[in-house]
Amino acid sequence: MPAPIRLRELIRTIRTARTQAEEREMIQKECAAIRSSFREEDNTYRCRNVAKLLYMHMLGYPAHFGQLECLKLIASQKFTDKRIGYLGAMLLLDERQDVHLLMTNCIKNDLNHSTQYVQGLALCTLGCMGSSEMCRDLAGEVEKLLKTSNSYLRKKAALCAVHVIRKVPELMEMFLPATKNLLSEKNHGVLHTSVVLLTEMCERSPDMLAHFRKLVPQLVRILKNLIMSGYSPEHDVSGISDPFLQVRILRLLRILGKNDDDSSEAMNDILAQVATNTETSKNVGNAILYETVLTIMDIKSESGLRVLAINILGRFLLNNDKNIRYVALTSLLKTVQTDHNAVQRHRSTIVDCLKDLDVSIKRRAMELSFALVNGNNIRGMMKELLYFLDSCDPEFKADCASGVFLAAEKYAPSKRWHIDTIMRVLTTAGSYVRDDSVPNLIQLITNSVEMHAYTVQRLYKALLDDISQQPLVQVASWCIGEYGDLLVSGQCEEEEPIQVTEDEVLDVLEGLLVSNLSTPVTRGYALTAIMKLSTRFSSVNRIKKVVSIYGSSIDVELQQRAVEYNALFKKYDHMRSALLERMPIMEKTASNGPTEIVQTNGETEPSVVEPKHPPPVTQPTNQATDLLDLLGGNDMVSVIQTTVPTKPASAGGELLDLLGDLSLSGIPPITAYNKNGLKIDFTFERANPNPNIAVITIHASNSTETDMTDFVFQAAVPKTFQLQLLSPSSNVVPALNQGTVTQVIRVLNPQKQQLRMRIKLTYTHRGSAVQDLAEVNNFPPQSWQ
């Protein structure tokens, strides 16, 4: 059989291929020749064939059939064969293949070989792909080589020990004695690998961390020698002595000094030296400075040192390299909470980064800018951020608008400034704001009584300029409906009042109803605003005409509103002024309080709910926590408990009749619970404004001879639903079925999924407290489809 071609010739041949198919043909032909050679047990050219196979493997072609040949080369006595064999084993084998276990004995023999280079090959291979079984078998040999005086072997043994510890952490103790003298070594290779080994041990074991803290002075001494030493050609990189070792030592000092006062104190001086003496003109120096900054921030360093670290990051922001600027912004974002004042000094530089062309830098600069906003700089920072909002890419607008809203709500110097800022956001990025921005702004305007005339005038002007920003149009429609009389009367004191007639205002709102830019929700706001103006303007006949037109609209939502409003005009005109009076001032509280954002005819409006509580109920303190566990862990949504105002007896029937002709019925009731004399029935109806909301009324009855007191009904639903639990009619369930306790549950089911509910019942019966849980899964399909 002719001698196979050399590796160099194979590379040259493959590079002449003009197409992928031609290259594949060459590879297949050569692989066939190599297979034939392997079958014939050709020892002469095995090394050459495996080398070619490794090249093909690097090109992405399959080379697994050479695994056993690698083992044969490892077992050879020739160094050239061993070198290719071990290289092939590292590339073609891993611990998922059982073949690698056949190498264990060869590696053990080579670790005890008389030639250091063969020992080095064995250490490299074990450190690269040794499995946990191999590491257990060979850890003793590695530990022995770690103690040798040969620096070539010690550095390789230290790296191999790192791999052994990662695979078998319980063997860590074995290497502890060998680490004592490692840092005394003069050879930089041994020092570097020793620091890597110590770092690995400290990260994996708190005991090792405590043990190695006594080495801090020695590490500080090594780092000082590196900084103060003169030019050393074998370690110099861009004028800095062994930056790789410096970075590794700084990383180890960071681990050792974290949460330890003594260690941090010992390294404060050297960190200051590194920070002030390192050259920053080259990237090498910047890498060391960055590690120094991270170390200063992680340990218990002095305040002056932390300011120095933040100043270094501030200098990074002026660097021309985008990567360095990005790293600086990310690091400042992490430290802004702990060292806010020091970061504030670089505010102007950070704001300048908002103009950077790189999107990653812009995003980090935006996040950091919002983190720097406080009561003192709110005006200046908002000016910059609003300018950024005007000019930034669409992908930034949503996050930037949300950030401006939150910052304005937290630090607004005045209500007028707050309103102006949010209106500026709505005019520039209204399509990108969060869904809750409209009700939040409505609530803000409602509470700012002295700003009503100014706000409605500003919003009216904004409507004349642009009706494409739907959130802005919705807020403006609501305000014009509420405060249209102030707009027409020209009572604005904050700026020059404009002269507007009632017809002009109605023209604008009617324009919104017919505009193609208006969404169905916006049209609902506009129609409601027109209806409200019937009690504020004198043009009632025109308003009646507009409302009646939309009674036959193809938009069901709009049609329903118009029909309801027509009913107000025709049947209940004497109630219209009371129903459409101005919204009262609202207090913003948590979702479980008496104030809530309620859905009114499909239009989200804040409203104050006057709590009318039944007699106090004694409940366990951990009741809310228990309820959260009803559906187990993350499959829960919180339950909003609200109260409803009691309705005047005289008008109650008339109000209920407004929607009487439109309600959906025909959903069969179910019995959700029937135990120990307590029976819970569910009846259903659909909320007209939103077909996704099911209104469930519970009826609790008691067939026993004794009243059930302190009755509390609670419910929980999966996360895909939202549940609102209104107040019960009473907390006493009368005996002998002489009465029922009713309570209303509203369930929002936007995805039309099958309804599931867990209920919790708590009551006192015959002097003893009773508590029970139940699951309701038999909801009729009509209630959720």
From TrEMBL:
GO cellular component: AP-1 adaptor complex
InterPro entries, alphabetized: Adaptor_Complx_Large_Subunit, AP1_complex_gsu, ARM-like, ARM-type_fold, Clathrin/coatomer_adapt-like_N, Clathrin_a/b/g-adaptin_app_Ig, Clathrin_app_Ig-like_sf, GAE_dom
PROSITE patterns: GAE
Keyword Membrane: yes
Protein name: AP-1 complex subunit gamma
Similarity remark: Belongs to the adaptor complexes large subunit family.
SUPFAM superfamilies according to UniProt: ARM repeat, Clathrin adaptor appendage domain
Stretches the record annotates as Disordered: 601-620
Topology versus the membrane: Peripheral membrane protein
Domain of life of the organism encoding this protein: Eukaryota
Sequence ranges assigned to domain GAE in this UniProt record: 665-780
Alphabetical GO biological process terms: intracellular protein transport; vesicle-mediated transport
Cleaved signal peptide residues: none
Keywords: Cytoplasmic vesicle, Golgi apparatus, Membrane, Protein transport, Transport
Organism of origin: Kryptolebias marmoratus (Mangrove killifish)
Compartment(s): Cytoplasmic vesicle membrane; Endomembrane system; Golgi apparatus
